[in-house]
Amino acid sequence: MKLVTVAGPPSCGKTSVILRLAQELSKDDLKLGVIKFDCLSSEDELRYDKAGIPVKLGLAGGLCPDHFFVANIEEGVRWGQRNGFDLLICESAGLCNRCSPHIRDVLAVCVVDNLSGVHTPAKIGPMLKTADVVVITKGDVVSQAEREVFAFRVKQVNPRGAVLPVNGLTGQGSLMLHRHLRTAPDTHALEGVRLRFSMPAALCSYCLGETRIGPDCQIGNIKTMDFS
């Protein structure tokens, strides 16, 4: 089974891109499954259900979504294997821009959209920087010049990754994405496999539920600013 991580900011079009990709996969009679990781709520599983795609939804709730993802992805792979998927896509939304859900030796896709602004690629961090493929959506609502500038900024952050414009509404460009996914290596297990980027160092009183403000309430890994 091939495993692919698809990550990107909320509302950039990840689910629409995956649904268009599913149409291309169905032409090859490939069985697709999706695990959707989100923070507090999601209705994307309804869209997958409507398209006839098996889906599991995981909500991090009060936990760090990145830690929630890594704590569940291995069992998610076993779920995909039990169901006989040819391709399992793990869609992650709303994760910390300091972090990345991408895994070594697993094809990594980052989705960003033209409407987010030309400075956004530099803000997204390792989720974009470590991706093998960067999908840029919503190109139909900006000018050619804006599309070129945005793609240039993406290449500045990730010169190694393939940059693909994909229209989540019409499916234009999804065939190229399909070809990249066909090159993804098979994944049999994730035990011992490493993430591409370490998670943020954070173990402080606020991680453990503290809500009061003040130095006496701050213990653990604390970073302060210089206001002098």
TrEMBL record:
Gene3D superfamilies: P-loop containing nucleotide triphosphate hydrolases. Residues 4-163 form the CobW/HypB/UreG nucleotide-binding domain. Pfam families: cobW. InterPro entries: CobW/HypB/UreG_nucleotide-bd, Hyd_mat_HypB, P-loop_NTPase. GO terms for biological process: protein maturation. One of its GO terms (molecular function) is zinc ion binding. This is GTPase, putative. It comes from Syntrophotalea carbinolica (strain DSM 2380 / NBRC 103641 / GraBd1).
